[in-house]
């Protein structure tokens, strides 16, 4: 009999994947972690029964978190990734030659440990000499930082457990202080089909903190609904006003110069979430 993993995305809907075997499972200090070998998606990282990343479609999320803000900023040197212990965003960040240092702050060291073991194509860049890995609370790291980073990327789980504080207005205000005077930040903000209220709340909070606030989307098949949003806050630079010569050739599978702008063209029901009452 086949074994199947099902993520219950709402009370009435879920997605399921055929599992060849469980590679590792444990209750960490923060969450239940499981690595699954799936038939369709390759190795899959699951936290608290939610799919975090898979070998087959991971490039979409990681490229869109990293390259939108890094091509928007004219000279990103110091980059912070909050969460993202699988290492995928760091891998993409390092494709930008201007980046001198990339700091990863992940609260759960077990995510880093088992991603290196079972997701080496994603986590391989964590040992790069430009990377500093800190097993620490990202919320507290931000609170203690001031005018340090050019770009901050929040690669968190959904707003449950240790990630709840990463969706608060106070956190975005802390990010603004941790960024330099021309800094940019981006966060994953879930999907508009099931989490419309969250997107609306985050957009409003970020807009009160940053002069330029934009939402963009990507298609990630193993995430709830497949349509995923990201919210960007920028102090100066508009992601839709990037000069053509700033786009350098890097190796990607999803992100392109044309998609950079196109991703900000929102379906109307998503655009409506960014309108004031």
Summing up helix and strand content along with how strands pair, one would put the structural category as: alpha/beta
Would you list the SSEs in sequence order as H and E? EEEEEHEHEHHEHEHEHEEHH
| CATH H-level homologous superfamily name of the largest domain | Vaccinia Virus protein VP39
Number of strands: 12
Folded structure, characterized:
- S-methyl-5'-thioadenosine binds at residues 31, 106, 137-138, 162.
- This protein is α/β, with parallel strands linked by helices and 277 residues long.
- The chain folds into two domains: 3-53, Spermidine Synthase, Chain: A, domain 2 (Roll); 58-274, Vaccinia Virus protein VP39 (Rossmann fold).
- The chain has helices at 58-72, 88-93, 109-118, 120-123, 138-143, 169-178, 196-207, 257-262, 268-271, and strands at 3-8, 14-27, 32-38, 42-47, 50-54, 78-83, 101-106, 131-135, 149-155, 179-188, 212-219, 227-234.
- The strands form two sheets. A seven-stranded mixed beta sheet has the order 8-7-6-9-10-12-11, with helices on both faces. Strands 1-2-3-4-5 form a five-stranded antiparallel beta sheet.
Strand and helix layout:
Blueprint: E1 3-8, E2 14-27, E3 32-38, E4 42-47, E5 50-54, H1 58-72, E6 78-83, H2 88-93, E7 101-106, H3 109-118, H4 120-123, E8 131-135, H5 138-143, E9 149-155, H6 169-178, E10 179-188, H7 196-207, E11 212-219, E12 227-234, H8 257-262, H9 268-271
Parallel strand pairs: 6-7, 6-9, 7-8, 9-10
Antiparallel strand pairs: 1-2, 2-3, 3-4, 4-5, 10-12, 11-12
Organism: Halobacillus locisalis
GO cellular component, one term: cytosol
EC number: 2.5.1.16
